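Me: I keep going back and forth on a fold encoding question. No explanation is needed for now; the record alone will do.

Assistant:
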Amino acid sequence: MGVCKLGYVSLNVTDVDAWTGLFSRTLGVEATSDKIGAQDVALLELDEFKYRLALYASAEDSPREVGWIVDSPTELDRITRRLTHAGFAVQDGSADETELRGATHLRWFTDPAGYRVELAVGESKVRSGPARPVDASPGVTGLGHFVLASPKLDELRELYESVLEFRVTDYRAPGLYFLRCNRTHHSIALAWAETTSIHHLEIEHGSLDDVGRAHDRAVANGVPISISLGRHMNDKAISFYVKNPSGFHLEIGYGGIKVSEDWTPHDFGRSDVWGHQHVEANPFAAPAS
């Protein structure tokens, strides 16, 4: 009940063409164009729904919105009451915003890190299946999760666990927590950092071979691989990471585990079973202090 999945992420970006080119060359994902008011927006087709990633041309690279899908108007009202009681000012989205999201109801608030968090009821299914490379089987299947790093870690945990009712799946003490809102191992991870940023967005794939082919396309097209192919210790996903034009990572992954109701949260210790060598320093290589 309540929040049921990660719906979409919107970004302000300084180079929309570089972003859409990265998705096209590496993942075989194309963009469609839309408008909100007078502003153009590029929508990336990750699955059969209207979009999972929206790109707005801007003078700066920054997150714009994080959208969570809520399963009913009744649950949206209940969550709104919980947020209001916790001190968050909840506002209705505009008619244009609601239409662009493909939602029937839209509300939003500002989280402790300063990001706009949206709660949407409804999703607009606009195709039977997006176009994919001929070797995809089935290729990209959706938006999996994101990792938010911030000095406001305690406040963010309070929001997601106590107010939005996410559950901790596992963690690495004292500064990295993986949270779920459905059976997927995690839809968000929260980490401590000196400055607020999105560390990465994860793009789900339908098979291990699709991840391998995406890796081949990235190498062939000179896309910077920022973290090598590997398997995570906690969710068991196999993935690699590329650096996107805004400077953070995209994780290209497959095979994350599902979690049962009787799962016990625990410290998973080592980050990876194998691989995932970082080109740059890994901010999560050791527990945060």
User: Anything to note?
Assistant: The radius of gyration is 18 Å. The domain at 140-275 is CATH 3.10.180.10 (2,3-Dihydroxybiphenyl 1,2-Dioxygenase; domain 1). The chain has two domains: 3-121, 140-275.
